[in-house]
Each structure stands twice: as C-alpha cells, then as structure tokens.
Amino acid sequence: MVFQGKEQTFKKTYAKELLAIAFGDLESAKGLQSSNRGRPENVCYLAHQVIEKSLKAVLIWKQIPFPLIHDANALIAKLPALDQPPHGYDLGELNQFATVRRYEEGAVELSKEMIQKAVNIAEEIWNWASEKITAEK
Fold it and tell me: Which of 23, 64, 136, 137 places its Cα 20 to 30 Å from the Cα of 108?
C-alpha cells in the first residue's frame, strides 16, 4: 500500500482478493435474505459492501488511487468515462446502508422487492467488476 495524501493505491494483485471478499459478501446477503432472519437493513448493507468492494477492485486493477471511503458515487467519479459501472451514480442510493441506516431499524420500510433489487444490483456490479478484471491482463 502506498499513501498519496488522502488517497491510496494498492498492489494490483489485491484487486482479485478484494473481488473474492465482495463475492463472500454477496453470498452472505443472499443467505440472510433467504433466511428471513435478522434485520432487512443488513441485506442492503451487504449489497452496498459488494458494490463498494467491487468498485474498489476495479480502481485497484487500473491502479487508480482512491480515498478509503464508503461513498459509491465518489468511487465512481474516480473511474474513467469508459469504465463506468451499470446504474452509474444511482448506486449511491445504497450509501445510506453503510452509514446512517446501520444505526436505524425500520426508519423506512424495506419491501421484499426493494431488498431483492439491491441484491440483484450488487450481483450485477460484482459481475461487471469481475469481467473488467479478467478481461484486462
């Protein structure tokens, strides 16, 4: 890890490791979702984690420094125009689950459809990141 002000770069090989961690988060989100146990906010939190780690994995693969933050939109802004993820800046809607919604229960009702959409988008972003990393040598 090399520090560059408030932004950091990582060894390129870490991109694949981070993507594997994101996949574990995706599997955890699906497991929690299908069990109908626990807080529904946690499924969305894990979906956000998949998105955040997938975006960071692409940034690492491309050797683009980024700040250690949980804001999907700020990470997306670091990506070149040709490397924008599906859903673009709409992914930032899940930021709330990595911040304030982690400490609130039921403040906003989450329907099963909303939770499923978050998991589907997380899987789509993981697939996008995986393709970006495996396609480029």
Answer: 23
**Rounded to two decimals, what is the model's pTM?**
0.91
> Rounded CA gap, 47 and 110, in Å?
14
Asked whether residue 12 carries a pLDDT value surpassing 60, the answer given is: yes
The CATH number of the domain covering residues in 2-135: 1.20.120.330
